[in-house]
Write a structure and sequence with these properties.
- The chain has 253 residues and is an alpha/beta fold.
- It has two domains: 102 residues, Translation factors (Elongation Factor Tu (Ef-tu), domain 3, Beta Barrel), CATH 2.40.30; 133 residues, Rossmann fold.
- Helix content is 19%, strand content 35%.
- It contains five helices and 13 strands.
- Helix 4 runs parallel beside helix 5.
- The protein is globular and about 55 Å long.
- The mean pLDDT is 96.
- The structure holds flavin-adenine dinucleotide.
- The site of flavin-adenine dinucleotide has 22 residues, from strand 5 and strand 6.
Length: 253
Amino acid sequence: MSSTSAPLLPNATIVDRSDLTESIACFRIRSDAAPVAFVPGQYVTVGLGVDERLVQRPYSIASSARRLDDGYELYVRLVPGGALTPHLFRTRPGERVVLRRPKGRFALRPVDDRTHLFVATGCGLAPFMSMLRTLDDDRAPRRVIVVHGVSYADELGYRSELERWAEDPGWALRYVPTVSRPGDPRNAGWTGWTGRAEAVLAALLAEPSFDPARTIAYVCGNPEMTVSADRLLRAAGLDDASVQKELYWPLAR
Ligand SMILES: Cc1cc2nc3c(=O)[nH]c(=O)nc-3n(C[C@H](O)[C@H](O)[C@H](O)COP(=O)(O)OP(=O)(O)OC[C@H]3O[C@@H](n4cnc5c(N)ncnc54)[C@H](O)[C@@H]3O)c2cc1C
């Protein structure tokens, strides 16, 4: 995260935007220069001028690494009072932003035949969408379990895309969406998993089919969830190299 008075000029355009709820939206951003390749799981940094300062934040890329010409798709939550997102959510397609090249170590391994356990909260699903879309474009599906924790069912972004893969016999994908506030009227009619992502993860790790020696876990999103999930995965027998984590903001002290 950063804020600087350095006069960095906009070098990219928001070419598309679609809103899932009042506080969650997908932005597609295209660079003026030739698009830079990335490994699924990596992030770009987006900056906007706010009160004559450049405010920049990292965002995981949600789009396929094979579709660079379409621009980078980002899946973003509005953080009320935040330095960047209230301004980002006021933008419309055509507006200019500063975009820094993809980077990050949270990245899909090129070859891995273990079961991939993807655990996300909220917009932490973004890097997993990039991984899955890239594998889909490569026609190289892997065995995947996607746990997506949200407060409300209407925040289950990419739900239909994930459900389609879950039903596709060419994929071995199990989609496990869960809502953490089942009693809220906004979740009326929800009949799926309930509880926090880490509670659902604990239930999955207790299933007889779970084999730590044949599993790699990627965990992304809310820092409390990420740290709890990491503990559960270690206790279930996964080693250091088999748990990849991305924390979207620092853990509260
Ligand atoms: C590698 C990386 C990738 C990221 N990818 C994404 C992404 O794909 N989508 C996305 O929405 N965010 C993502 N983030 C978070 C993003 O960079 C910003 O932190 C977030 O958008 C808030 O920015 P802001 O300037 O509006 O708020 P800030 O002024 O930076 O934040 C104020 C406070 O809000 C809290 N906060 C930050 N993010 C959230 C959140 N999502 N929910 C609740 N509280 C929050 C933190 O405590 C923070 O200190 C990522 C972060 C990292 C480190």
